[in-house]
Amino acid sequence: MQLSKRENYLIEILMKNNMMLTAHQLAEISSVSTKTIYRTVKKINEESAEGDIIISEIGKGFRLDYDKYLHLNTENKMTTKEKESLVRRNNIILKLLFKAPNSIRINDCGSRFCWTKVY
Fold it and tell me: Deepest in the core among 7, 21, 100, 115, taking most CB within 10 A?
């Protein structure tokens, strides 16, 4: 998904504020009209393969669905090797979480998932 400067800026604003913002507030921050905000949000959501990444709630405003946005960005930019690393990392985290009440040595966990030391 290729975004324009305005679209990226709108997403940045929503990320930084991490709360609901009205179209009027977004328009003031970005120095455009509220109609431009509505059009930009509509365009972003239409181009997104993940569904609406900017959620709108009547009477409350707009917020970024950060999980969908992050998934959309990482999925398109990651190589196969990076995806494999991510899967290994997630498996390690899951194993550590499920073994939390019991002690587990880091070497026992990492050996199964190709653990390497980084200096």
Answer: 21
